[in-house]
Design a protein that fits this description.
The structure holds two protein chains of two kinds.
Chain A (H helix, E strand, L loop, with lengths): L3 H14 L5 H8 L15 H15 L5 H35 L6 H42 L2
Helix pairs in contact in A: 3-4, 4-5
Chain B lengths: L2 H11 L7 H8 L11 H8 L19 H15 L4 H30 L1 H13 L1 H12 L3 H13 L4 H11 L1 H47 L16
The chains are: A mainly alpha, B mainly alpha.
């Protein structure tokens, strides 16, 4: 059982050790999400809106059902997210390949690059999971309409 | 209601906030003027003149990869699977992309090991010839100097070793990198298999719904005709 003195000490230590403290550290941490921009929701990226709308229109297939249309937007957004991650991964590989030309790639550098690719892999896995979940909901909605048809 | 407006609605439904002060500050120098409020009307206006290439239709090709081979693979798989709707098209593209990636990663692993063979050779020659001589000989061997290649082969066979020994040492020296490539390959394979399962589930559930819907229609249409003339038919009002 933690006594109150220990609890207070734990909280004090946690406050001391959490997050950047200097101004430059805070500035760096504030830009973490912009490193590759993949943690920014696709809805927040204006350039992707057109692709989401076009794909959602195709998925909705002229349906006027509000639920189907909403789910179509979800699937389209998730699909664009998957493509965005893949695009970022290929861009990273190409960029590193160009950067490495003419020089020998050191082992530690390659190690970091592969680590970065594995990190991007996590984003793709999450995006695909979102797409699967949205797709299942869209399918259920579409199939309910088939079942309700005369 | 247009889909663009629905995105706006969905944005609030999914609790994705409009940019906070901090986001506006950090995004300010990237794509919008500092302090400008983001909304979907602006998004559509910007999206109609995109500065970036479209993501859809993006082919996962690296330098030196054959675009025609990728297109051919996509065409052949499309011919076999015959996607029935947009969802199936998305999945099919995924399966092809992920299969392409698996092959590419396997090739990358082989090429990586071949290009790192000098690391394994240096380790083997260290024990046979000593540090200094192994350094020089490995460098010459990596440059494919014919005398060095012959000398290396002679040294290995004299010690009862082959290039397999060198490749084993190379693998041991590069195990971290190889392990990461393997992990990426396994992840791509898992994803491809998951997509294949999604297609199979979708088709079976769709078929089941179609069967149920068509059997309902048949039940409605079905009438029992009386075998005795003069009696009213069952199902008739």
């Amino acid at each position: 059982m933690i006594v109150s003195r220990q609890l207070a000490a734990n909280r004090r230590n946690a406050r001391r050790g959490t997050g950047p403290r200097t101004a430059s550290g805070k500035l760096t941490a504030a830009r973490n999400a912009l490193r590759h921009g993949l943690s920014v929701p696709v809805f927040a990226d204006p350039a992707l809106a057109k692709e989401i709308v076009e794909l959602a229109e195709r998925l909705a297939n002229g349906s006027t059902d509000a639920e189907v249309r909403e789910l179509a937007v979800r699937v389209a957004a998730a699909q664009v997210d998957v493509q965005r991650v893949r695009h970022a991964r290929y861009a990273l590989i190409v960029q590193r390949a160009i950067g490495a030309s003419g020089t020998e790639t050191r082992s530690d550098r390659l190690h970091d690059e592969l680590q970065e690719l594995c990190t991007l892999d996590r984003y793709e896995r999450q995006a695909m999971w979102r797409r699967k979940s949205a797709t299942l909901a869209l399918q259920a909605s579409l199939f309910r309409n088939i079942g309700a048809a005369p | 209601m247009r889909l663009g407006d629905e995105i706006k609605v969905l944005k609030y439904m999914t609790f994705i906030p409009t940019h906070s002060k901090r986001e506006r500050r950090t995004r300010g120098d990237r794509d919008t003027a500092a302090g400008e409020t983001f909304d979907m009307t602006t998004a559509r206006d910007i999206a109609t003149n995109p500065t970036r290439p479209a993501l859809s239709g993006h082919r996962p090709l690296l330098a030196g990869e054959d675009g025609a081979a990728y297109d051919s693979l996509l065409g052949r798989v499309s011919d076999v699977v015959k996607p029935a709707d947009v969802l199936e098209e998305i999945w099919l593209q995924d399966v092809v992309d992920l299969s392409w990636e698996v092959v590419k990663l396997r090739r990358i692993k082989v090429e990586f090991l071949n290009s790192s063979a000098h690391r394994g050779l240096r380790k083997v020659l260290d024990g046979l010839l000593g540090w200094k001589e192994s350094q020089d000989l490995t460098a010459q061997w990596a440059g494919r100097d014919p005398d060095a290649v012959k000398l290396v082969e002679g040294s290995l066979s004299a010690a009862g070793m082959t290039m397999n020994t060198v490749m084993a040492q190379t693998l041991a020296a590069s195990i971290n990198e190889v392990e990461r490539i393997e992990r990426l390959t396994a992840a791509a394979e898992l994803r491809r298999n998951a997509v294949l399962r999604e297609i199979a589930d979708y088709r079976s559930v769709f078929a089941a719904h179609l069967r149920r819907a068509t059997s309902d229609i048949q039940d409605v249409e079905f009438k029992v005709i009386s075998s005795r003339p003069g009696l009213p038919q069952e199902g008739a009002a």
